[in-house]
Amino acid sequence: MAVVGVALSDCGRVDGATPYALHAQAARRALADAGLDRSLVDGFASAGLGTLAPVEVAEYLGLRPTWVDSTSVGGSTWEVMAAHAADAIAAGHARVVLLAYGSTARADVRAGRRTGTLSFGARGPLQFEVPYGHTLIAKYAMAARRHMIEYGTTIEQLAEVAVQARANAALNPEAMFRTPVTVDEVQSGPVIADPFTKLHCCVRSDGGAAVLLAAQEYVRDCRTSPVWVLGSGESVSHAAMSEWPDFTVSPAAVSGRLAFGRAGVRPSEIDVAEIYDAFTYMTLVTLEDLGFCGKGEGGAFVSKGRLRVEGGDLPVNTDGGGLSAQHPGMRGLFLLVEAVRQLRGECGERQVRRSGGALPRLAVASGTGGWFCSSGTVVLGAG
């Protein structure tokens, strides 16, 4: 099965649209990208909106799917859904599956809507952490500090992740923030949760995305070159921080091993990586856990400019990522869109090239959910 259509809705600062409208805009654009009629869509996956997602969103889009998925595991939701969709297509349970997402996370806060600042809640395991002010960002900050203590990772090395993400965003006309930054500028910002300053943290934006997967027999009818789903993996780790065995190991260590094994490729063969980056530490530890470098070597790995589109030997988050391009809540679907566009050679100034100017052949998209609670990894290959 192949990805045959991808698209983003309007992103960044979108004050005049609802989340439903962003879903619809991205979905229409993805269908147009593929050149397929909406009537062919018999599978639909969505999460994060409505009481009965994806029923409400499917109704809004005018779809009556016979296969649905509403798996919700945070930012990794979309990589997990893509894996489920690929399995459904392979089993003959669906022929064309649409994954869609839309959020007005930024506009909600700007307008003072109650939904803009809702927490994860305080029921279940979280009831033992919430009373102590253990916020989501505090959990990531704790994990980053543990890595620094265990392996000597420096805050300057983590800042390099933000610097290189911004360098990639400078090549993306649709990124929210494009002005280059230095390590000193990252470090001189206000502290949000020690050791993170503001630029160690993702932006808050509005936006939507959609991805269309189809069975092989429909690929010839599409206007785009197919991007094949070669392998995938998913894993969950913990809900309470007290149940996380090792703050320096994310569930990507499992999902990545599964995805690469099922795809029959090695990390060293990957040309471009799209990695969930709500915070700089996420990029660093995910690179380790996917096998691009050894455990504890992430700091040295990222400090050498390897993540840049221009001059990097492993371009990462080529659109600028959640740190600079856009981050409207659960960003995992945006990783898949960018990976597909890179493999199709559609990224303009930020297009990754292999030696000799050839287009990339292999990409990986790895999403993270919650506070390293879940991971989904998908390996993609050019058609």
Automatic annotation (TrEMBL):
Q: Which InterPro entries match?
A: Thiolase (IPR002155), Thiolase-like (IPR016039), Thiolase_C_2 (IPR055140)
Give the Pfam families listed for this entry.
Answer: Thiolase_C_1 (PF22691)
Start and end residues of each Thiolase C-terminal domain: 233-381
Under the heading CDD domains, the entry gives:
SCP-x_thiolase
Q: Which PANTHER family match?
A: ACETYL-COA C-ACETYLTRANSFERASE, NON-SPECIFIC LIPID-TRANSFER PROTEIN-LIKE 2
Output this protein's name.
Answer: Thiolase C-terminal domain-containing protein
Which lineage is the organism of this entry classified under, starting from the top rank? Answer: Bacteria, Bacillati, Actinomycetota, Actinomycetes, Kitasatosporales
